[in-house]
């Protein structure tokens, strides 16, 4: 079988691509406050280039012995560095968690011993071992990527697919070499290995290009959280709450659904701060936030819109349901707020509620109605809920 692959062209192209991508990763490492994963991935490209260079040098006439061993040391280090970069990205130790770290160390020991014994007399055996070792590392990379709770999933899926194809290719190489060594089937070993090498080079390059995608979308997600979430309670901040509220308002109006806004303001919070300190005040805010998360539905929109002021948008609830929810919320705040982290803060809250009507031209109008109702709840004695347009009050 003549596969017509010009090996030197293939190798030079791959070396160039990996040098370019490695250089880009190294530059990103410096531009992104020395984020370690990029350095490890740049080193993975470099070790791949060095491994390829040593493997080529070994083919030259009069090459000194031991070159193939050095070549495979670098080629084996390359997938290891890719995996180490994924661990660094996830904030894990470089060798991963305890179990996978033990597996990697064991496999590395076997691989290095196998190389040391075989590489001197048969480069094909060295290829066999490197392919087997790489397939194992790619499987671990797929597993590790699967455990990342990362949104969007696309970069993860792309990388898992690339590692999957690459691992399968490496196992094909292992099988081809094993079958050819057993002598049971006549194979064009060099032709097949060339074909595998070409795919291997393509996959290395594609993986090196896809890795930054994962890191970038990950840090973008972190920025979105920073921009949209309140740092203390992790609820939506004021800006994000208004944005989500406006979307829910428009949707409810189009569909003719009900949507209710609640403004929840803690009572005499200043006294809690003054008497027990700001740190206790912060803990109280966190407790109230988690209470709201627990008491309201997942698709309700909950935010911290001011210092001790929270707000929620509840979808598709009628007045009775809303009154039941606010009554429960007030009750839970009183129960839980009797003592927060051992401090008898005796917390209560006031709630103002407004349901979307024809008079409301925008989400801000519903918020303004809820604010008026909240004012009434405060005025009427606190620890209660008031609603507009009717003034049904739920006193605990
Ligand atoms: N601990 C803490 N306190 C905050 C935070 N943001 C605002 N505050 C405090 O919340 C208090 C709000 O006080 P006021 O607006 O007078 O309201 P209040 O004491 O709750 O009184 P009423 O609302 O009328 O029942 C102020 O003392 C603010 O300093 C915060 O992030 N942490």
UniProtKB/TrEMBL annotation:
Listed Pfam families: GGDEF
E.C. number, please?
2.7.7.65
Please give one Gene Ontology molecular function term for this protein.
diguanylate cyclase activity
Q: Name one GO cellular component term.
A: plasma membrane
The reaction(s) annotated as catalysed by this protein in its Swiss-Prot or TrEMBL entry are: 2 GTP = 3',3'-c-di-GMP + 2 diphosphate
Keyword Lipid metabolism attributed: no
What keywords sit in the KW lines? Membrane, Transmembrane, Transmembrane helix
Q: Which PANTHER family match?
A: DIGUANYLATE CYCLASE DGCM-RELATED, REGULATORY COMPONENTS OF SENSORY TRANSDUCTION SYSTEM
Name used for this protein in its record:
diguanylate cyclase
The organism that produces this protein has a lineage beginning with: Bacteria, Pseudomonadati, Pseudomonadota, Gammaproteobacteria, Pseudomonadales
